[in-house]
Write a structure and sequence with these properties.
The chain is an alpha/beta fold. The chain contains three helices and six strands, in the order E-E-E-E-H-E-H-E-H. Helix 1 crosses helix 2. 29% of the residues are buried.
Length: 133
Amino acid sequence: MLHPNQFQPDEAWIVFRLNDVPVRTDQEGSFNVVALMDAASCFIFGAEFVAVEKAEPSQTQVKRLFSGAKKQSSGLPAKLFVPKRQFEQAVVAAAERLGIAVVRVEEAELLIFIGEARSGFNERFAEGGSGEA
């Protein structure tokens, strides 16, 4: 079982969907929020809003995620944990171009890392929540 204390900062990053239900906006439609996190610290480097109709972020969005993370970290990680059956193309391709090994895991294995962030985000921004997008 994976746990943050198994990692050093910037040894492994995690890409995941931050929301459980789509974030709705009046003018732009509904979105999923894809985030990039450090496995050791659970620090979220950044996030991108992706239209619900799309399976994953665009190449431009993925590039922004990785660029932002690289600026905030001490270097690129050796591994990127990716939930199985998610982020099949652009995220994997970008990681591989950067020399980052992609490790597919069941999303349940990532909950120890992402659960608190997801819970807080959903309380604030999920449909029916008190936040506004």
